[in-house]
Amino acid sequence: MTSINIQNVSKSYINYPVLQGLNLDIRDGEFISFLGPSGCGKSTLLFCIAGLEDITSGSILFDGRDISGLSARDRNIALVFQDYALYPHMSVRDNLAFPLRQQKIPEETIRKQVAWAAELLGLDQLLDRSPAELSGGQRQRVAVGRAIVRNPAALLMDEPLSNLDAGLRVRTRTEIKRLQRQLKMTVIFVTHDQEEAMVLSDRIAVMNAGIVQQFAEPMTIYRE
Ligand code: ADP
Ligand code: ADP
C-alpha cells in the first residue's frame, strides 16, 4: 500500500521525448489505469515507476519519499506482464516461493506466504503442477500470485490480460479487482482497452503522445 506522486516527469531516449512533464498523484490503495494508443508511453512510465528505466527529469515519490536513488528491488514494486513468464521447470509452489527464497526469508514464513497467496488466487489445488500443465488463465493467476507474495508496496501490470481469450479476460480482470479491493493495494494497470480501464479503475490517466490528457474517474471522462 502506498501513494505514488509523479512530479513533472520527462523521459527521452537520446533526443526523442517519450514522456513530457507528467504529473499524477496516485492515492494509497487506488486502482489506476494508464489508457492510450500503442506507443504513447504507457509502458515507459510504468518502467520508470518500477525503477527499470531512469527518468530524464522530474521526480517520483512513494509515500512522499523520492525514490530516484532506489533500485528496482528496493522499490518493492511487483510487476506482471502479458506473457506471464513463469519458471517452466519449477512447480507452481516453487514459482510462488521464488521471490521470497531470493530474499532469504525463512522456509516456515515462505510456506505461510505461499499458502496465503495460493488461497487468495484459488491455486490451492494446483501447487504441485508445472506451468506447462496449466491453462493460460491459471498461469496468469500464478504470475499475479508470485507478484504479490512478498506483499509489495504496489502492483504494476502491463497489458496483463491481452494474451487471454475474451471470456477468460473478463473473469481474470474480475479476480484482479477483487484481490485489489481485498488487499487495498495500489494498482497501476496499463491497457489500450477502454472498456477494461472503465470497469477496473478508480481513475484513468488518458495518455497520448507522451502526455496525460485527462486524469479522472471513468464516468467523468466518458460522460459526453
Ligand atoms: P506504449 O506502452 O504506450 O505502447 P511505450 O512506452 O512502449 O508505449 O513506447 C513509447 C515510445 O517510446 C515509442 O515511440 C517507442 O518506440 C519508444 N521507445 C520505447 N522504448 C524505447 C527504447 N528502449 N529506445 C528508444 N525508444 C523507445
Ligand atoms: P526479481 O529481480 O524481480 O526478483 P528476476 O530478476 O529473477 O526477479 O526476474 C525478473 C523476471 O524475469 C521474473 O519476474 C520472471 O518473470 C522473469 N524470469 C527470470 N528468470 C526466468 C526464467 N528462468 N524463466 C522464466 N522467467 C524468468
Automatic annotation (TrEMBL):
This is ABC-type sugar transport system ATPase subunit. The keyword Mitochondrion does not apply. Belongs to the ABC transporter superfamily. Signal peptide: none annotated. Keywords: ATP-binding, Nucleotide-binding, Sugar transport, Transport. It comes from the Bacteria. Residues 4-224 form the ABC transporter domain. The lineage of its organism: Bacteria, Pseudomonadati, Pseudomonadota, Alphaproteobacteria, Hyphomicrobiales. The chain holds residues 1 to 224 of 338 of the full protein.
